[in-house]
């Protein structure tokens, strides 16, 4: 599908099927693909990261569903808002810097990443994992702001009330001030802009991108009654800590990532084995999991009211804060640090 792009104002034209939506403008006409094709994205990746594999969390967006399946997936949403009205009050709940890791059960002290440790494993579910990437020219032309909310929702019509709320919350999170001192953040809507922000934040274009293992289900893992034992831990970055960028896939009709850097960090690949293993009948949690974990080392600027600190009997700055990556997250690190 193509859209007709003009350089002044745009109107919205939506064709049957949702993914065929187009922008219509008026001055200079240029034909540009609306969605980036897998071959185009792969060519871009190989041009900037030759001979380096594309992380699975990026590949998932290259096999985006279409038609009715796409519409059904758009109705799924992470956040729960119980009002049909979109208000600023609704959005305030989502402004914590940690997004989907704000719940205390998703946070761990770094000390648990030691062979033999036992934990209740919580990894959040991936959001909008199969939303397609916009073509870079299209993504750069769309002002992702709540001020343009009506125009943006019209572009992706039909949009369910739940998806509209998710879109508003995502845009609000992108606009919200930094929650942690020194945090760098940006919302990216193309693969190129995600790489560009990561390079700027890390001070180098020589990067490596990581995603968590396919062992982690899209729906995440919640094991309140089943314990996991840490079988092995491998440091991806030096124990001395380094700077990284984490990009979280957000609930939106197209691929949109909330990228932020709360540094320094340490990154681990953690292998966990469920107690009881495969002998537990009809268990909904995998017997073995290999997942990436991010530890924020300098926590002095973190929210002191988190119950995480109460549970540890500590204050911000006295311990690291760690969380596992979802299937939809992308981690960027300087190649020299990995």
From TrEMBL:
UniProt entry tagged with the keyword Flavoprotein: no
Keyword Signal attributed: yes
Lineage top rank: taxon: Eukaryota
PROSITE patterns: BURP
Stretch forming the signal peptide: 1-17
Domain BURP: 101-335
Pfam families: BURP
Keywords: Signal
Transmembrane segments: none
Protein name: BURP domain-containing protein
Species the sequence originates in: Urochloa decumbens
């Amino acid at each position: 599908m193509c859209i007709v792009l003009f350089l002044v104002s745009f109107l919205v034209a939506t064709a049957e099927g949702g993914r065929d939506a187009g922008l219509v403008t008026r001055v200079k006409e240029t034909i540009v693909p609306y969605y980036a094709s897998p071959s185009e994205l792969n060519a871009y990746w190989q041009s900037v990261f030759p001979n380096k594999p594309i992380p699975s969390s990026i590949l998932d967006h290259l096999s985006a569903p279409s038609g009715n399946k796409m519409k059904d997936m758009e109705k799924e949403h992470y956040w729960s808002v119980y009002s049909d009205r979109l208000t600023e009050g609704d959005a305030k709940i989502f402004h914590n810097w940690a997004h989907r890791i704000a719940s205390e059960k998703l946070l761990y002290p770094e000390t648990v990443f030691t062979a033999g440790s036992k934990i209740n494993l919580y990894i959040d579910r991936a959001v909008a994992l199969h939303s397609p990437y916009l073509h870079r020219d299209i993504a750069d032309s769309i002002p992702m702001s709540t001020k343009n909310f009506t125009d943006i929702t019209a572009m992706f019509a039909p949009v369910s009330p739940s998806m509209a709320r998710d879109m508003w919350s995502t845009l609000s999170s992108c606009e919200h001030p930094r929650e942690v001192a020194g945090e760098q953040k940006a919302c990216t809507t193309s693969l190129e802009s995600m790489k560009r922000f990561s390079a700027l934040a890390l001070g180098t274009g020589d990067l490596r991108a990581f995603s968590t293992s396919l062992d982690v289900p899209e729906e995440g893992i919640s094991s309140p009654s089943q314990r996991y034992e840490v079988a092995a831990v491998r440091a991806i970055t030096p124990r001395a800590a380094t700077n990284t960028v984490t990009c979280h896939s957000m609930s939106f009709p197209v691929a949109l990532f909330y990228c932020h850097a709360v540094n320094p960090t340490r990154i681990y690949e953690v292998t966990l084995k469920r107690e009881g293993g495969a002998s537990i009948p009809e268990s909904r949690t995998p017997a073995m999991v290999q997942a990436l974990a991010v530890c924020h080392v300098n926590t002095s600027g973190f929210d002191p009211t988190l119950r995480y600190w109460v549970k540890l009997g500590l204050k911000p700055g006295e311990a690291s804060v760690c969380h596992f990556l979802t299937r939809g997250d992308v981690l960027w690190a300087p190649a020299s640090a990995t």
